[in-house]
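Example S7 (structure tokens).
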């Protein structure tokens, strides 16, 4: 009965164990995980666009091959995450339709344009770096399929972050124009990358419940702080600066203090008014339409296979 099921669920959470698809779960648990995993999947798929735009313009065959591999990884992460979301009962074409209809969220960071090749470095180093900070704790998410998907995804993100850092390192040690291009890309990406961790804790309606259910292991601000502490020495090693005059080591906190972020801009972006929201959705819709024939062919092939097996 419901009481026993709820008690069983509460005990699994209290023991910091795992909920699997066949287990009973509160509808609100199912709902918030479907919400988060679907948004995560959408982020991976939309995240392919800024980098995809630079594959044909990569400065060397090596860079082209690495960037192609990274974009392919992100497609795979998206499909992995749609599969994890489907185990909660919502079919992926329903989730994808929400994205196509402009009704679904995806990571704010991808609504900013990638203006130069150096952005490929800033995305790898900062965006994938932030993604790693956010995703490593998600490997211990109480929902089994999501936690397990994160283990595989985090391994590939580390390669993404390294190749980004290496692009910036090469540019920073190149000509003055290349160094300036790298610095400009870092200047544009730093703020929005810090906002990937979500709004400040006192403006985060989902955090408390997500933490009670061992979905979210650390608060938005805790992970943001961890990320800032990580990138300050890395920026020094790059010979680049971070665009934040308030950034300074705070001895008694044992962390770096950093400046206020523009949350009006953030909430505008997640409402759909970012610099590239319309472009990203238009591209995603066009890809869906251009790929319709593949879906039809696959469905027809599956039908014929089923027919043949039925005979
Ligand atoms: N972009 C867009 N929307 C965001 C956001 C962001 N960066 N941060 C928060 N939001 C939204 C939330 O979805 C929520 O709206 P909703 O209730 O309609 O879903 C609202 O703002 C309030 O935020 P909360 O802090 O209450 O929401 P969460 O508890 O869900 O925390 C989160 C936000 C930390 C992003 C959490 O959802 C999360 O950890 N998600 C999984 C990680 C993820 O999505 N990462 C994407 C990174 S990009 C990527 O991985 C691609 C890379 O490989 C290139």
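Recovered sequence:
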């Amino acid at each position: 009965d419901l009481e026993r099921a709820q008690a069983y669920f509460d005990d699994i959470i209290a023991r910091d164990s795992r909920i699997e698809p066949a287990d009973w779960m509160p509808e609100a648990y199912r709902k918030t995980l479907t919400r988060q995993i679907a948004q995560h999947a959408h982020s991976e798929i939309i995240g392919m666009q800024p980098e995809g735009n630079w594959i044909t313009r990569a400065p060397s065959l090596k860079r082209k091959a690495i960037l192609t591999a990274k974009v392919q990884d992100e497609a795979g992460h998206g499909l992995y995450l749609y599969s994890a979301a489907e185990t909660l009962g919502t079919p992926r074409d329903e989730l994808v339709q929400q994205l196509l209809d402009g009704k679904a969220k995806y990571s704010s960071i991808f609504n900013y344009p990638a203006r130069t090749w150096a952005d490929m470095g800033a995305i790898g180093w900062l965006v994938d770096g932030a993604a790693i900070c956010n995703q490593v704790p998600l490997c211990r998410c109480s929902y089994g399929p999501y936690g397990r998907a994160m283990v595989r995804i985090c391994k590939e993100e580390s390669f993404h972050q390294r190749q980004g850092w290496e692009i910036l390192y090469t540019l920073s040690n190149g000509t003055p124009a290349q160094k300036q291009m790298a610095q400009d890309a870092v200047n544009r990406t730093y703020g929005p990358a810090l906002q990937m961790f979500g709004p400040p804790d006192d403006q985060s309606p989902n955090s408390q419940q997500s933490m009670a259910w061992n979905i979210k292991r650390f608060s938005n601000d805790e992970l943001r702080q961890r990320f800032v502490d990580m990138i300050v020495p890395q920026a020094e090693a790059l010979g680049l600066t971070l665009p934040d005059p308030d950034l300074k080591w705070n001895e008694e906190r044992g962390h770096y203090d950093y400046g206020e972020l523009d949350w009006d801009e953030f909430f505008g972006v997640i409402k759909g008014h970012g610099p590239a929201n319309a472009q990203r959705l238009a591209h995603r819709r066009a890809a869906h339409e251009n790929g319709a024939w593949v879906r039809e062919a696959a469905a027809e092939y599956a039908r014929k296979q089923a027919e043949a097996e039925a005979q």
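Notes on this example. The chain is about 70% helix and 0% strand.
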